[in-house]
DNA sequence: ATTCATCTTTACGTTTACGTAAACTTCCTT
DNA sequence: AAGGAAGTTTACGTAAACGTAAAGATGAAT
Protein backbone atom coordinates (compact mmCIF):
# COMPACT_ATOMS: atom_id res chain seq x y z
CA UNK A 1 0.00 0.00 0.00
CA UNK A 2 2.56 2.49 1.21
CA UNK A 3 5.21 1.15 -1.14
CA UNK A 4 4.97 3.41 -4.09
CA UNK A 5 8.75 3.12 -3.99
CA UNK A 6 9.56 6.51 -5.55
CA UNK A 7 8.30 10.07 -5.47
CA UNK A 8 8.85 13.15 -7.56
CA UNK A 9 9.85 16.38 -5.94
CA UNK A 10 6.45 17.94 -6.52
CA UNK A 11 4.67 14.98 -4.98
CA UNK A 12 6.65 15.39 -1.79
CA UNK A 13 6.22 19.13 -2.00
CA UNK A 14 2.46 18.76 -2.05
CA UNK A 15 2.21 16.00 0.51
CA UNK A 16 4.15 17.90 3.13
CA UNK A 17 3.30 21.42 2.06
CA UNK A 18 6.84 22.64 1.50
CA UNK A 19 8.21 24.31 -1.60
CA UNK A 20 10.44 22.46 -4.02
CA UNK A 21 12.94 25.18 -3.30
CA UNK A 22 13.10 24.07 0.30
CA UNK A 23 13.46 20.42 -0.61
CA UNK A 24 16.34 21.20 -2.95
CA UNK A 25 17.86 23.39 -0.28
CA UNK A 26 17.77 20.54 2.21
CA UNK A 27 19.62 18.45 -0.32
CA UNK A 28 22.13 21.25 -0.74
CA UNK A 29 22.67 21.09 3.01
CA UNK A 30 23.22 17.33 2.82
CA UNK A 31 20.02 16.50 4.66
CA UNK A 32 18.64 14.60 1.68
CA UNK A 33 20.45 12.61 -1.00
CA UNK A 34 17.88 11.50 -3.57
CA UNK A 35 18.79 9.44 -6.59
CA UNK A 36 18.62 10.69 -10.16
CA UNK A 37 17.18 9.55 -13.41
CA UNK A 38 19.07 11.75 -15.81
CA UNK A 39 18.84 15.15 -14.24
CA UNK A 40 15.61 14.51 -12.41
CA UNK A 41 15.59 13.77 -8.71
CA UNK A 42 13.95 10.57 -7.56
CA UNK A 43 12.98 10.17 -3.93
CA UNK A 44 12.65 6.78 -2.26
CA UNK A 45 10.37 6.16 0.70
CA UNK A 46 13.51 6.44 2.82
CA UNK A 47 14.04 9.94 1.50
CA UNK A 48 10.42 10.65 2.26
CA UNK A 49 10.94 9.60 5.87
CA UNK A 50 13.99 11.81 6.06
CA UNK A 51 11.98 14.77 4.87
CA UNK A 52 9.34 14.03 7.46
CA UNK A 53 12.04 14.03 10.12
CA UNK A 54 13.41 17.33 8.89
CA UNK A 55 10.03 19.00 9.11
CA UNK A 56 9.45 17.54 12.55
CA UNK A 57 12.75 18.98 13.69
CA UNK A 58 11.81 22.35 12.29
CA UNK A 59 8.52 22.35 14.17
CA UNK A 60 10.60 21.92 17.31
CA UNK A 61 12.68 24.94 16.42
CA UNK A 62 15.84 23.04 15.53
CA UNK A 63 18.12 24.58 12.94
CA UNK A 64 19.04 22.58 9.87
CA UNK A 65 22.52 22.20 11.33
CA UNK A 66 21.10 20.64 14.48
CA UNK A 67 18.90 18.35 12.44
CA UNK A 68 21.93 17.28 10.45
CA UNK A 69 23.63 16.52 13.73
CA UNK A 70 20.70 14.39 14.82
CA UNK A 71 20.92 12.48 11.57
CA UNK A 72 24.62 11.83 11.94
CA UNK A 73 23.97 10.75 15.53
CA UNK A 74 21.70 8.13 14.13
CA UNK A 75 23.92 7.11 11.23
CA UNK A 76 27.09 6.78 13.25
CA UNK A 77 25.58 4.30 15.65
CA UNK A 78 26.42 1.58 13.13
CA UNK A 79 29.91 2.64 12.17
CA UNK A 80 31.54 4.46 15.08
CA UNK A 81 34.67 3.68 16.99
CA UNK A 82 34.60 3.31 20.74
CA UNK A 83 35.40 6.97 21.41
CA UNK A 84 32.84 7.99 18.80
CA UNK A 85 30.18 5.87 20.40
CA UNK A 86 30.85 7.23 23.85
CA UNK A 87 30.63 10.73 22.50
CA UNK A 88 27.39 9.80 20.84
CA UNK A 89 25.88 8.69 24.11
CA UNK A 90 26.76 12.05 25.57
CA UNK A 91 25.26 13.94 22.67
CA UNK A 92 22.16 11.82 22.85
CA UNK A 93 21.66 12.63 26.49
CA UNK A 94 22.20 16.30 25.70
CA UNK A 95 19.48 16.19 23.12
CA UNK A 96 17.29 14.43 25.63
CA UNK A 97 17.86 17.25 28.09
CA UNK A 98 16.86 19.79 25.47
CA UNK A 99 13.66 17.94 24.80
CA UNK A 100 12.82 17.73 28.47
CA UNK A 101 13.40 21.46 28.81
CA UNK A 102 11.03 21.95 25.92
CA UNK A 103 8.41 19.81 27.61
CA UNK A 104 8.67 21.98 30.70
CA UNK A 105 8.45 25.11 28.60
CA UNK A 106 5.37 23.81 26.85
CA UNK A 107 3.73 23.05 30.15
CA UNK A 108 4.37 26.59 31.33
CA UNK A 109 2.98 28.14 28.18
CA UNK A 110 -0.06 25.88 28.42
CA UNK A 111 -0.69 27.19 31.90
CA UNK A 112 -0.44 30.72 30.59
CA UNK A 113 -2.90 29.91 27.84
CA UNK A 114 -5.27 28.40 30.41
CA UNK A 115 -5.06 31.57 32.40
CA UNK A 116 -5.51 33.79 29.38
CA UNK A 117 -8.49 31.77 28.25
CA UNK A 118 -10.33 31.98 31.54
CA UNK A 119 -9.65 35.68 31.80
CA UNK A 120 -10.96 35.98 28.29
CA UNK A 121 -14.11 34.03 29.12
CA UNK A 122 -14.68 36.09 32.24
CA UNK A 123 -14.37 39.30 30.25
CA UNK A 124 -16.82 37.97 27.69
CA UNK A 125 -19.27 37.01 30.39
CA UNK A 126 -19.19 40.44 31.92
CA UNK A 127 -19.79 42.06 28.56
CA UNK A 128 -22.75 39.89 27.66
CA UNK A 129 -24.40 40.15 31.09
CA UNK A 130 -24.13 43.92 30.88
CA UNK A 131 -25.81 43.76 27.51
CA UNK A 132 -28.68 41.75 28.99
CA UNK A 133 -29.05 44.26 31.78
CA UNK A 134 -29.29 47.06 29.26
CA UNK A 135 -31.92 45.16 27.33
CA UNK A 136 -34.18 44.68 30.38
CA UNK A 137 -33.75 48.24 31.63
CA UNK B 1 13.64 38.01 48.90
CA UNK B 2 12.99 38.11 45.22
CA UNK B 3 11.97 41.79 45.30
CA UNK B 4 15.08 43.56 44.28
CA UNK B 5 12.64 45.77 42.40
CA UNK B 6 14.99 46.86 39.61
CA UNK B 7 17.72 45.38 37.46
CA UNK B 8 20.38 46.75 35.15
CA UNK B 9 20.71 45.42 31.65
CA UNK B 10 23.91 43.59 32.45
CA UNK B 11 22.37 41.90 35.48
CA UNK B 12 19.61 40.47 33.33
CA UNK B 13 22.15 39.67 30.64
CA UNK B 14 24.17 37.59 33.07
CA UNK B 15 21.26 35.97 34.84
CA UNK B 16 19.71 34.67 31.64
CA UNK B 17 22.85 34.33 29.57
CA UNK B 18 21.80 36.61 26.73
CA UNK B 19 23.76 39.53 25.31
CA UNK B 20 22.76 43.08 26.08
CA UNK B 21 22.45 43.47 22.34
CA UNK B 22 19.64 40.93 22.33
CA UNK B 23 17.86 42.56 25.23
CA UNK B 24 17.94 45.93 23.53
CA UNK B 25 16.80 44.30 20.33
CA UNK B 26 13.79 42.83 22.08
CA UNK B 27 12.96 46.31 23.26
CA UNK B 28 13.34 47.56 19.73
CA UNK B 29 10.78 44.95 18.72
CA UNK B 30 8.41 46.15 21.44
CA UNK B 31 8.74 43.00 23.49
CA UNK B 32 10.17 44.91 26.44
CA UNK B 33 9.51 48.47 27.62
CA UNK B 34 11.84 49.20 30.51
CA UNK B 35 11.87 52.51 32.32
CA UNK B 36 14.75 54.96 32.21
CA UNK B 37 16.80 56.91 34.66
CA UNK B 38 18.34 59.49 32.40
CA UNK B 39 19.50 57.47 29.45
CA UNK B 40 20.00 54.26 31.35
CA UNK B 41 17.45 51.47 31.14
CA UNK B 42 15.90 50.23 34.35
CA UNK B 43 14.16 46.89 34.41
CA UNK B 44 11.44 46.02 36.91
CA UNK B 45 10.72 42.47 38.03
CA UNK B 46 7.83 42.59 35.57
CA UNK B 47 10.28 43.26 32.78
CA UNK B 48 12.37 40.43 34.09
CA UNK B 49 9.40 38.08 33.82
CA UNK B 50 8.78 39.28 30.30
CA UNK B 51 12.34 38.47 29.35
CA UNK B 52 11.97 35.04 30.85
CA UNK B 53 8.88 34.49 28.74
CA UNK B 54 10.67 35.65 25.61
CA UNK B 55 13.48 33.17 26.14
CA UNK B 56 11.03 30.40 26.87
CA UNK B 57 9.28 31.14 23.61
CA UNK B 58 12.57 31.07 21.77
CA UNK B 59 13.43 27.67 23.21
CA UNK B 60 10.18 26.47 21.68
CA UNK B 61 11.19 27.81 18.30
CA UNK B 62 8.75 30.70 18.24
CA UNK B 63 9.76 33.79 16.31
CA UNK B 64 9.83 37.13 18.07
CA UNK B 65 6.73 38.08 16.08
CA UNK B 66 4.88 35.06 17.43
CA UNK B 67 6.02 35.84 20.92
CA UNK B 68 4.76 39.38 20.53
CA UNK B 69 1.45 37.91 19.44
CA UNK B 70 1.32 35.75 22.55
CA UNK B 71 1.94 38.81 24.66
CA UNK B 72 -0.82 40.80 23.03
CA UNK B 73 -3.11 37.78 23.44
CA UNK B 74 -2.49 38.08 27.10
CA UNK B 75 -2.72 41.85 27.35
CA UNK B 76 -5.91 42.17 25.37
CA UNK B 77 -7.81 39.86 27.67
CA UNK B 78 -8.42 42.84 29.93
CA UNK B 79 -9.34 45.43 27.36
CA UNK B 80 -10.86 43.73 24.33
CA UNK B 81 -14.25 44.21 22.73
CA UNK B 82 -16.55 41.25 22.22
CA UNK B 83 -15.30 40.51 18.71
CA UNK B 84 -11.73 40.90 19.94
CA UNK B 85 -12.31 38.48 22.75
CA UNK B 86 -13.89 35.87 20.50
CA UNK B 87 -10.96 36.16 18.14
CA UNK B 88 -8.66 35.75 21.09
CA UNK B 89 -10.29 32.49 22.08
CA UNK B 90 -9.68 31.23 18.56
CA UNK B 91 -6.07 32.28 18.57
CA UNK B 92 -5.57 30.73 21.96
CA UNK B 93 -6.88 27.40 20.77
CA UNK B 94 -4.64 27.65 17.72
CA UNK B 95 -1.63 28.13 19.93
CA UNK B 96 -2.79 25.20 21.99
CA UNK B 97 -2.90 23.04 18.86
CA UNK B 98 0.64 24.07 17.99
CA UNK B 99 1.83 23.07 21.42
CA UNK B 100 0.13 19.71 21.22
CA UNK B 101 1.75 19.08 17.87
CA UNK B 102 5.07 19.90 19.47
CA UNK B 103 4.41 17.45 22.25
CA UNK B 104 3.76 14.74 19.69
CA UNK B 105 6.91 15.69 17.81
CA UNK B 106 8.93 15.55 20.98
CA UNK B 107 7.60 12.12 21.78
CA UNK B 108 8.62 10.88 18.34
CA UNK B 109 12.11 12.30 18.61
CA UNK B 110 12.45 10.79 22.07
CA UNK B 111 11.63 7.39 20.62
CA UNK B 112 14.27 7.92 17.98
CA UNK B 113 16.79 8.84 20.63
CA UNK B 114 15.85 5.71 22.59
CA UNK B 115 16.46 3.65 19.51
CA UNK B 116 19.73 5.40 18.71
CA UNK B 117 20.92 4.93 22.26
CA UNK B 118 20.29 1.22 22.38
CA UNK B 119 21.91 0.74 18.99
CA UNK B 120 24.81 2.70 20.34
CA UNK B 121 25.06 0.59 23.47
CA UNK B 122 24.85 -2.59 21.45
CA UNK B 123 27.66 -1.44 19.21
CA UNK B 124 29.76 -0.54 22.24
CA UNK B 125 29.11 -3.93 23.78
CA UNK B 126 30.23 -5.75 20.69
CA UNK B 127 33.39 -3.70 20.51
CA UNK B 128 34.37 -4.28 24.13
CA UNK B 129 33.58 -8.00 24.09
CA UNK B 130 35.77 -8.37 21.02
CA UNK B 131 38.53 -6.61 22.89
CA UNK B 132 38.20 -9.04 25.79
CA UNK B 133 38.36 -11.98 23.41
CA UNK B 134 41.55 -10.60 21.93
CA UNK B 135 43.04 -10.17 25.38
CA UNK B 136 42.39 -13.77 26.36
CA UNK B 137 43.58 -15.21 23.07
C1' DA C 1 41.37 65.55 37.22
C1' DT C 2 41.51 61.37 34.98
C1' DT C 3 40.69 56.74 34.53
C1' DC C 4 37.83 53.01 34.57
C1' DA C 5 33.41 50.50 34.12
C1' DT C 6 28.98 50.55 32.46
C1' DC C 7 25.81 52.45 29.94
C1' DT C 8 24.08 54.63 25.52
C1' DT C 9 22.96 55.32 20.18
C1' DT C 10 24.05 54.55 15.39
C1' DA C 11 25.01 51.75 11.84
C1' DC C 12 27.00 48.44 8.94
C1' DG C 13 27.94 43.21 8.75
C1' DT C 14 26.54 38.26 9.07
C1' DT C 15 24.11 33.83 9.20
C1' DT C 16 20.10 31.03 8.30
C1' DA C 17 16.53 29.56 5.45
C1' DC C 18 14.65 30.14 2.13
C1' DG C 19 11.93 33.43 -2.15
C1' DT C 20 12.09 34.64 -6.76
C1' DA C 21 13.42 35.24 -11.37
C1' DA C 22 15.95 33.75 -15.60
C1' DA C 23 17.23 30.59 -18.81
C1' DC C 24 17.44 25.81 -20.11
C1' DT C 25 16.20 20.55 -20.77
C1' DT C 26 12.80 16.67 -21.20
C1' DC C 27 8.92 14.59 -22.04
C1' DC C 28 4.14 14.46 -23.30
C1' DT C 29 0.36 16.09 -25.83
C1' DT C 30 -2.18 18.12 -29.47
C1' DA D 1 6.42 20.66 -35.04
C1' DA D 2 4.85 23.38 -31.48
C1' DG D 3 3.38 24.10 -27.09
C1' DG D 4 2.90 23.18 -22.25
C1' DA D 5 3.96 20.90 -17.78
C1' DA D 6 7.43 19.64 -14.73
C1' DG D 7 11.94 19.33 -13.97
C1' DT D 8 16.78 21.52 -13.71
C1' DT D 9 20.88 25.02 -12.48
C1' DT D 10 22.51 29.57 -11.33
C1' DA D 11 22.25 33.48 -8.94
C1' DC D 12 20.71 37.53 -6.82
C1' DG D 13 17.31 39.15 -3.10
C1' DT D 14 15.31 39.11 1.56
C1' DA D 15 13.54 38.79 6.46
C1' DA D 16 14.84 37.59 11.08
C1' DA D 17 17.90 37.87 14.85
C1' DC D 18 21.27 39.24 16.24
C1' DG D 19 27.12 40.40 16.08
C1' DT D 20 30.33 43.85 16.07
C1' DA D 21 32.66 48.03 15.95
C1' DA D 22 32.65 53.18 16.72
C1' DA D 23 31.99 57.10 19.39
C1' DG D 24 30.15 59.27 23.03
C1' DA D 25 27.66 60.12 27.94
C1' DT D 26 27.67 59.14 33.05
C1' DG D 27 29.01 58.04 37.42
C1' DA D 28 32.22 56.16 40.84
C1' DA D 29 37.02 55.51 42.35
C1' DT D 30 41.84 56.74 42.54
TrEMBL record, chains A, B:
GO terms for molecular function: DNA binding; DNA-binding transcription factor activity. Keywords: Coiled coil, DNA-binding. InterPro entries: DNA-bd_dom_put_sf (IPR009061), MerR-type_HTH_dom (IPR000551), MerR_fam (IPR047057). Residues 6-73 form the HTH merR-type domain. Signal peptide: none annotated. Residues 92-133 form a coiled coil. This is MerR family DNA-binding transcriptional regulator. It comes from Pontibacterium sinense.
